[in-house]
């Protein structure tokens, strides 16, 4: 007779357990980590020369690999298959220590969430346990995540042990808010700043992961996810995961899907809207705004996109576009607009968009507020600036004579571009 429990066990083994992409593709070795070579070089040299610091402070935005980095350090320090029983830069990943660390069950590698263990009693327990030698490894490693959440008393209790820990103990502290860490703690640690990823680099990485999962995503669409992730690898992979799950009967991740999922606007529509505003064409501008709103674009997002375009045009205007990651279409549009307007005009637009953003955020009706602000901005070309007032007073022929003409006919005859 077949045991019913065995049947369920067999079925569960046949189906591989689902893992989110951020966990499935979590780096296992130092060389798998992207865009942090400045830190990896230091760690490599310290391991190879056997000059390993007793405490590391890892700081950076969410999702850039602080905890992942800490776990790899723990594996490197305790891998069994190393030469002369010393730490190794490239752990084997197959020994009992490496496997148990990756699975989060090693008795000598203690991960502590400082957000839920903030008090002195929690730190005293760590200090007391640190006196005992490791059970199955070279070093006992304490990984304290979100360490900035510790209370002042807890930090003070940790100071002495952090400065002179037992030889078999290593501390790896991680935080997203380095400014909240007391200087007395920072001075006792070797600090590493993990950088947020370059948008272009993250986009290429997301393309690679999508291909491994059997999906296609072009560079432009990968850049949309990369931009939304703001340099965070974990956020980027989570968004890619969502995009893959949203796909139906296709293995292509398209722009329409991403625009709806991310709540963003097609760039071509935004540049068209920007053109209408510069030309002072209020009717076309309002029609474009309403069309975008019907398609799902939020007023707040539309203004953010308009501000980004203003910024890109400004950099093109002053010849600093090399710092931007732009498609050929965007670069061409920005350069064309930059040739037709002054820096003063574009910075004025930036200020007005920023003011509109605040108004929209605090409004009972964001779309109505957006429309009223955009109407005002359409007439910006006919608003007298302080520079124009000074020029008027300095001009002997027209001294003190300033004319105002903000009629709609004048707007149409004298657009910004």
TrEMBL record:
EC number: 2.7.7.7
Catalytic activity of the protein: DNA(n) + a 2'-deoxyribonucleoside 5'-triphosphate = DNA(n+1) + diphosphate
Enzyme class: transferase
Pfam families from the UniProt entry: DNA_pol3_delta2, DNA_pol3_gamma3, DNAX_ATPase_lid
Domain AAA+ ATPase: residue ranges: 52-198
CDD domains: AAA (cd00009), HLD_clamp_pol_III_gamma_tau (cd18137)
A biological process from GO: DNA-templated DNA replication
One GO cellular component term noted in the UniProt record for this chain: DNA polymerase III complex
MF terms (GO), sorted A to Z: ATP binding; DNA binding; DNA-directed DNA polymerase activity; metal ion binding
InterPro entries membership: AAA+_ATPase, DNA_pol3_clamp-load_cplx_C, DNA_pol_III_gamma-3, DNA_pol_III_sug/sutau_N, DNA_Rep/Repair_Clamp_Loader, HLD_clamp_pol_III_gamma_tau, P-loop_NTPase
Annotated SMART domains: AAA
Swiss-Prot/TrEMBL keywords: ATP-binding, DNA replication, DNA-directed DNA polymerase, Metal-binding, Nucleotide-binding, Nucleotidyltransferase, Transferase, Zinc
Family: Belongs to the DnaX/STICHEL family.
Subunit and partners: DNA polymerase III contains a core (composed of alpha, epsilon and theta chains) that associates with a tau subunit. This core dimerizes to form the POLIII' complex. PolIII' associates with the gamma complex (composed of gamma, delta, delta', psi and chi chains) and with the beta chain to form the complete DNA polymerase III complex.
Role according to the record: DNA polymerase III is a complex, multichain enzyme responsible for most of the replicative synthesis in bacteria. This DNA polymerase also exhibits 3' to 5' exonuclease activity.
NCBIfam families from the UniProt entry: dnaX_nterm, PRK05563.1
Protein name: DNA polymerase III subunit gamma/tau
Gene name of this polypeptide: dnaX
């Amino acid at each position: 007779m077949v045991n019913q429990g065995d049947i369920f066990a067999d079925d569960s083994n046949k189906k591989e357990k689902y893992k989110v992409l951020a966990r499935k593709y979590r780096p296992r070795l130092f060389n798998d980590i992207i865009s942090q070579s400045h830190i990896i070089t230091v760690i490599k040299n310290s391991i190879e020369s056997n000059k390993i610091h007793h405490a590391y402070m890892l700081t950076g935005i969410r999702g850039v690999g602080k905890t992942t980095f800490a776990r790899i350090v723990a594996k490197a320090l305790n891998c069994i298959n190393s030469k002369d029983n010393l730490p190794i830069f490239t752990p084997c990943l197959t020994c009992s220590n490496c496997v148990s660390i990756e699975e989060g069950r090693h008795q000598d590698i203690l991960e502590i969430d400082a957000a839920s263990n903030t008090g002195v009693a929690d730190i005293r327990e760590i200090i007391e346990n640190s006196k005992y030698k490791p059970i199955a490894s070279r070093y006992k490693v304490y990984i304290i995540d979100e360490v900035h959440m510790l209370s002042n008393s807890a930090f003070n209790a940790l100071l002495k042990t952090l400065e002179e820990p037992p030889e078999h103990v290593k501390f790896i502290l991680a935080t997203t808010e380095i400014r909240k860490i007391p200087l007395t703690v920072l001075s006792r640690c070797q600090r590493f700043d993990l950088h947020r990823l370059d948008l272009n680099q993250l986009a290429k990485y997301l393309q690679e992961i999508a291909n491994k999962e059997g999906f296609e995503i072009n560079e432009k669409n990968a850049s949309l996810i990369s931009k939304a992730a703001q340099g965070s690898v974990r956020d980027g992979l989570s968004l890619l995961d969502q995009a893959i799950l949203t796909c139906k009967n296709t293995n292509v991740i398209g722009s329409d899907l991403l625009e709806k999922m991310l709540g963003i606007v097609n760039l071509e529509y935004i540049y068209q809207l920007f053109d209408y505003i510069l030309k002072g064409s209020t009717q076309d501008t309002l029609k474009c705004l309403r069309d975008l709103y019907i398609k799902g674009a939020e007023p707040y997002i539309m203004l953010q996109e308009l501000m980004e375009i203003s910024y890109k045009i400004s950099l093109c205007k002053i010849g600093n576009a090399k710092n931007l990651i732009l498609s050929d279409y965007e670069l061409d549009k920005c350069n064309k607009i930059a040739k037709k307007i002054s820096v003063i005009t574009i910075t004025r637009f930036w200020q007005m968009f920023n003011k509109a953003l605040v108004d929209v955020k605090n409004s009972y009706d964001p779309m109505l507020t957006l429309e009223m602000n955009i109407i005002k901005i359409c007439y910006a070309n006919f608003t007298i600036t302080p520079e124009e007032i000074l020029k008027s007073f300095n001009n002997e022929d027209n001294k003190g004579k300033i004319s105002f003409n903000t009629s709609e006919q004048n707007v149409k005859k004298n657009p910004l571009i």
